[in-house]
Amino acid sequence: MTSIDRHKTLGLSESDLRRMYYLMLAARALDERAWVLVRQGKIAFTVGGEGQEAAQVGAAMALKPGVDWVLPYYRDTAVVLALGMTLEEVFLAEFGKANDPNSGGRQMSKHWSRPELRIFSCSSPVATQLPHAVGCALAARLSGEEALAWVSFGDGAVSKGDFHEALNFAAIYRLPVIFFCENNQYAISTPFRLQSPVPRVADRAAAYGIPGITVDGNDVLAVYEAVRAAAGRARAGEGPSLIEAVTYRFAPHTSNDNDRLYRSEEEIAAWKSKDPIKRFGGYLAECGILSPEAGAELARQVHAEVAAAARRALLAPEPLPETAGRFVYAEPESGREH
Amino acid sequence: MTSIDRHKTLGLSESDLRRMYYLMLAARALDERAWVLVRQGKIAFTVGGEGQEAAQVGAAMALKPGVDWVLPYYRDTAVVLALGMTLEEVFLAEFGKANDPNSGGRQMSKHWSRPELRIFSCSSPVATQLPHAVGCALAARLSGEEALAWVSFGDGAVSKGDFHEALNFAAIYRLPVIFFCENNQYAISTPFRLQSPVPRVADRAAAYGIPGITVDGNDVLAVYEAVRAAAGRARAGEGPSLIEAVTYRFAPHTSNDNDRLYRSEEEIAAWKSKDPIKRFGGYLAECGILSPEAGAELARQVHAEVAAAARRALLAPEPLPETAGRFVYAEPESGREH
Amino acid sequence: MAVRNIVETVAHTLREEMRRDSRIIVIGEDVAKIGGVFQATKGLLSEFGPERVIDAPLAESSLVGIAVGAAAAGLRPVVEIQFADFIYPAMDQIINEAARLRYRSNNGYHCPLVIRTPYGVAPGGGGGLYHNQSVEGMFCGVPGLKIVAPATPYDTKGLLIAALRDPDPVLFLEHKATYRAVSGEVPDEEYTIAIGKADVKREGRDLTVIAYGLMLHQALAAAEKLAKSHIDVEVVDLRSLKPLDKELICRSVRKTGKALVAHEDCLSGGIGGEIAAVIMEECFFHLDAPVMRVAAPDIPLAPYSRHLEEHVVPGRAALEKAMRELARF
Amino acid sequence: MAVRNIVETVAHTLREEMRRDSRIIVIGEDVAKIGGVFQATKGLLSEFGPERVIDAPLAESSLVGIAVGAAAAGLRPVVEIQFADFIYPAMDQIINEAARLRYRSNNGYHCPLVIRTPYGVAPGGGGGLYHNQSVEGMFCGVPGLKIVAPATPYDTKGLLIAALRDPDPVLFLEHKATYRAVSGEVPDEEYTIAIGKADVKREGRDLTVIAYGLMLHQALAAAEKLAKSHIDVEVVDLRSLKPLDKELICRSVRKTGKALVAHEDCLSGGIGGEIAAVIMEECFFHLDAPVMRVAAPDIPLAPYSRHLEEHVVPGRAALEKAMRELARF
Ligand SMILES: Cc1ncc(C[n+]2csc(CCOP(=O)(O)OP(=O)(O)O)c2C)c(N)n1
Ligand SMILES: Cc1ncc(C[n+]2csc(CCOP(=O)(O)OP(=O)(O)O)c2C)c(N)n1
Ligand SMILES: [Mg+2]
Ligand SMILES: [Mg+2]
User: Fold this and answer.
1) pTM score > 0.90 for this model?
2) Residues 253-292 of B with CB under 8 A from C
3) Phi and psi of A206, rounded to 5°?
4) pLDDT at residue A332, rounded to an integer
5) How far apart are CA A232 and CA A224, in angstroms?
6) DSSP state of B120
7) How far is residue C288 from each of residues A128, C281, D285, D289, measured CA to CA in Å?
8) Is the minimum CB–CB distance between A29 and chain B shorter than 8 Å?
9) Is the CB of residue C40 less than 8 Å from the CB of residue C116?
10) Which of C164, C229, C288, D134 could form a disulfide with C257 if both were Cys (CB 3.0 to 4.6 A apart)?
């Protein structure tokens, strides 16, 4: 197998690869646009996944949209796009608009929720979603569904008791859960070595007797391969897996962060030279699937789409103040199935 | 090395061994007496460590009383006796008397606390003491003290987030902590296999990059050896260890439990045939340190001591109702150093 | 109509609802094999099997967290927290997750979850500082959560069915001292009691006592004693602590002009402050006396020694004294 | 005398006390290298080193738990919870451990621990449902704990020193909207303000407003406006939420005959109910009107969209309206 056969071995078609590349470009462009909106004072806050697109797209491609429970965390722009959320929907959340399908403007942006796509509701407290994923898997098993639960989180989340308790339960009951850590080296300013006594998040899997895989998170195909394998195990009743995608966050933690206080330009530059998008673009060019020129054209097109989506979202209506009290509890008249 | 040379290799003298045997007998007799007191209606509640004496005495013998921070859990009668708590003091707690040095009758029995011996205050919520031990070790290091922290807990406690968070922190900062799990196979009715996806608690150590040792918890010398080695590592600045002493609880969980609902007479009998006290008595006889006759005589003497201590404690004054409100906060007039 | 005590009623009602609704699962520490340390889930494992009745690992935070995920994904989990004193590790999942799920997803997800837990002092039970606590005061400020605390077998069944069918998270508090001590007739047929509805358990004209759980029974007993002194006490059983039945409370207080709120929890920060404030806000000009509170002093509940415990835990005597004082106004 | 804002005062006071007492350590997420996400621990790492200023792993439960152990073993830990919204995982360690340690050991151990945390809504800050919460109502029922919530730089210094020297656990609440918005003179010398003492920030005769944190400033501003309508408002700054300064509160209410309690937290279960109940108990016959409460509605605080946030968070306008209404009684 030469290096340009990798996607074939994985059963990915050329159109799959083009879609993956498109998703990575789109997520990047979207996140970058959000920073511009913050600087323009149009939104109060943003958080992005720039640099982590390979990890996110690789993982999402291995899931069944609308079937599997997906519990992404706040950096997973590319994940939700891959599952079917539109650019405009993400921007509606960015602006906190009334018809933001995630939360109707109640949550910070990137706090996902899309029941129709089985994208679970994401809150801010770190790691609380891990037990939720276990619960989704439990529900799926009990209902006789084939669904698995995929949940992502950062390297910081691994320190929390929730991580331990969730993996422990999932392992005891061999539940179909994929625990997917996007190890981007930092939890805000705190470097991984102050978060973890072991060099790899995947080393933690031994405590639960489950597979622990470390994968190059900037290699979209490698991530896809690892998650697909874990999904196979999950669907075959072989229980949970822990996957660590080693990657890097290019931008500050959020729009409230100044990352120059805790990491050097050199460090950032070194990681940027491993940009997962460039890398995947290189692979596509090498395979003759997308020439550099076609890639550049695609990037332009994506930027235009992103800009248009942002513009449309900006013009969408704001939430009505008097709706602030709705849905603290069920409303009988809301017509929703309880 | 023949089997009867073991204690010499460990540097334990004959009088050490006699003391260890005495402590095991005393703890057993004390715990058993407490059950009688419950049946007599003299106390409302008890909990005991019968069957776990080898683990407890073996561990405690490797610690420096009054120097090391000791955070025992509610089964550790033998641990506190080994550190210097008297039989009468334990009974004062059993009866909830005013001069119970543990809590003055405020806590359930076996909820230890003895500042003079650096025995930490033990509460009921499972596993909360693990981070406390880490904090004690942190304080000791910062004060330049040579003290380590030893903390014990059951197999159920391993499931809690506190376990994970405490080991993680201790490992990152290489703090002198010995995490000592008395794996007695059950958390109330819940068997270890429903608590743990891995066969050994010690397997968890891999997640923290620290030594994880499983030891026969019914072999007092083996436990001593393991804890002494961990203490050596801790004092040498090599960080924490996780030790699992595999043992069994002979009695019901507490006086409120009916263990026949979840385990068979055969299972209990099989473990009782491995009674750590009989086993150690056999070793002492084999070594010619304590003949069976002398052992029996010692047991009689211990029972008399225990009975006398219980009688004295029974006659001690009850707490005065109007003291119930004291020490919710510091009292300026109490004369205690803050 | 069967006569049952409260713990039997819990087990019986769970069984009946589990037969009717296959989405209900029961999960907690020691709830399956032995049917719970109080036997509140007795018999469920043998009827419904280990898929629906789960002996969970000792980890309250994920216990609730897993139930939140399962509830959102279509099940109807019933979590048992073995003692209310051990609910704190799960606060994050209860407050930040369960109670906010519907709101934050703009009605996209919801969380039909029941958290059952025994609370309160079992007098002389030797439970000490960690098997006797009341926690309701801490949760009554959590929007998105409902809290019920029935005091009779009849109300237990009706409210438990209502909780199990409620589309939002319900904290279901069972006073452990009532588990076996309080028995009563329980209809065989299914019925619900609306969450948020209080109940006048004794009518009276002179003053209103508002209580729940064990204190309800103490209040009723004290009211009988006062009746002999020709003081006619109305006793309101709150039953639901969130939402509060302000309407019924105020109707009663407007009638009697005097109110006493009783709870076993500490005075400061207990739910009594909220109720007293509501009464003042809504019925100030009907009040002939300040709203009184009978509660434990601000001391950790409850010290082990019976001598200390009795001193701390408010009982019938304290209630009676306060009621007489209030009547004298 | 330097002029400082509140967050600078926190950092400055910590530094001064750490110089005086080598037992003080600061531990929290991102407190060392970057000096905290709000810069409240800025400069401490470089002066005191990584042994005393610790960037802890992301784990609030053990963060407090480790500090409890360290406090009992002789240190004086200051824990930062990055946002009050993230304190819930630590509830067990705060309530069951820190607050009960002295009591349960019959004065054998104690826990001199300060937990600092920014709380409250930063208006328009985009913090959403998990960076805006108020948590004081939840802790005011915990015996063994003290709670302070200063509103000015002067009080921040005095209360922080008092907290750092207190032998018992103190929850130190810093309203994040005041961090940079509120500045004032801070004496250079050391001084303490007794925990449990409120302060009359504005004298008046017609009605008493009781507030703390950001609401104190809203109340003062509203009082100035009402002065133009010849309504003379007394504004009490609670400063300490536990213990409450009942004496000062009652002295003021007895004088004015009218009381309004204001907080940003939700109405139900907020600390206002407790205060209203106390006022009624102690000053009933001095009251010319019911004690009023201004608070957020029972809605999760606070939705992200500014349009929603503004609707939910009580501000100066709501206060002013209530004050006028109360004055009319
Ligand atoms: C329980 C909790 N504590 C603290 C925070 C504040 N906080 C938000 S993100 C974050 C760091 C998370 O790091 P990591 O898990 O590595 O994810 P990353 O942001 O690096 O992708 C922290 C401390 C929080 N949201 N929740
Ligand atoms: C947080 C918490 N949850 C539940 C309990 C109730 N409880 C007391 S002991 C116990 C089992 C503990 O088992 P293990 O840790 O194995 O210790 P063992 O009693 O077997 O020695 C449980 C569930 C508790 N004390 N604390
Ligand atoms: Mg990270
Ligand atoms: Mg055990």
Assistant:
1) yes
2) 256-258, 261-262
3) -60, -30
4) 82
5) 12
6) P
7) 50, 14, 10, 14
8) no
9) yes
10) C288
Residue A122 three-state SS: coil
State the Cα–Cα distance between residues C85 and C120, nearest whole angstrom. Answer: 9
CA angle in degrees (0–180, nearest 5) for A183-D303-A30: 45
Domain D2-186 top-level CATH class: alpha beta
Task: Decide: B211 and B205 in contact? Cβ < 8 Å.
Answer: yes
Structure confidence by residue, pLDDT tens digits, A46-82: 999 999 999 999 999 999 999 999 999 999 999 999 9
Helices (H) and strands (E) in chain C, counts: 12, 14
Q: For tokens 């280990």, what's the residue?
A: C50
Level-2 CATH architecture, domain D199-328: 3-Layer(aba) Sandwich (3.40)
Amino acid at D272: G
Cα–Cα distance list, A167 to A210, A243, C28, C329, D64 (Å): 9, 12, 17, 61, 23
Q: Is B298 helix (H, G, I), strand (E, B) or coil?
A: helix
Q: Which domains can be identified in chain B, with CATH numbers?
A: 3-314 (3.40.50.970)
In whole angstroms, give the CA distance from residue D263 to residue D216: 9
Are domains C2-186 and C199-328 of this chain identical in fold? yes
Contact A254, A47 (CB under 8 A): yes
Distance A190 CA to ligand 3 centre (A): 8
Q: For residue range A111-141, what is the model confidence (pLDDT) as tens digits?
A: 999 999 999 999 999 999 999 999 999 999 9
How many residues are given for chain B? 338
Summarize pLDDT for C217-255 with one digit per residue, the tens. 999 999 999 999 999 999 999 999 999 999 999 999 999
- The label of the residue with tokens 């819990």 reads C10
Does B32 contact chain A (CB < 8 Å)?
Answer: no
* CA neighbor of A227 nearest in space, from A208, A210, A214, A238: A214
Map residue A111 onto helix, strand or coil. coil
CA C115 to chain centroid: 11
Is C103's Cβ below 8 Å from some Cβ in A?
Answer: yes
Sign of CA dihedral B301, B304, B308, B313: positive
Q: Can you count the helices (H) and strands (E) in chain B?
A: 11, 7
Catalogue the E-assigned strands of chain A: 69-71, 149-154, 177-183, 186-187, 190-191, 212-216, 241-246
Q: Output the furthest CA–CA distance in chain A (Å, rounded).
A: 62
Q: What is the C-alpha to C-alpha distance for residues B331 and A42, in angstroms, rounded to an integer?
A: 55
Strand arrangement, sheet containing D199-202: D199-202, D233-237, D207-211, D259-266, D292-296
- Beta-bridge partner residues of C80: C28, C116
DSSP 3-state assignment of D66? helix
Q: In Å, what is the CA distance from C107 to each residue of A212, A328, B19, B155, B325?
A: 36, 9, 67, 41, 47
**Angstrom distance (rounded) from CA C265 to CA C301:** 8
Query: In chain C, what are the domain boundaries?
Result: 2-186, 199-328
Residues of chain C with pLDDT under 70: none
Residues 6+ positions from C131 with CB-CB distance below 8 Å: B108, B124, C83, C85, C122, C125
Determine the residue of chain C that is closest to B193 in CA distance.
C57
Among the partner residues A164, A171, A203, nearest to B206 by beta-carbon distance? A203
Packed helices C316-328 and C214-228: angle between N→C axes, nearest 10 degrees: 50
Are D304 and A190 inside 8 Å of each other by CB? no
Distance CA A283, CA A278 (A): 9
The one-character DSSP state at C98 is: G
CA distance D99 to C300: 9
Beta bridge partners of residue D26, listed in sequence order:
D53, D78
- The alpha-carbon gap from B154 to the nearest alpha carbon of chain A, in Å, equals 16
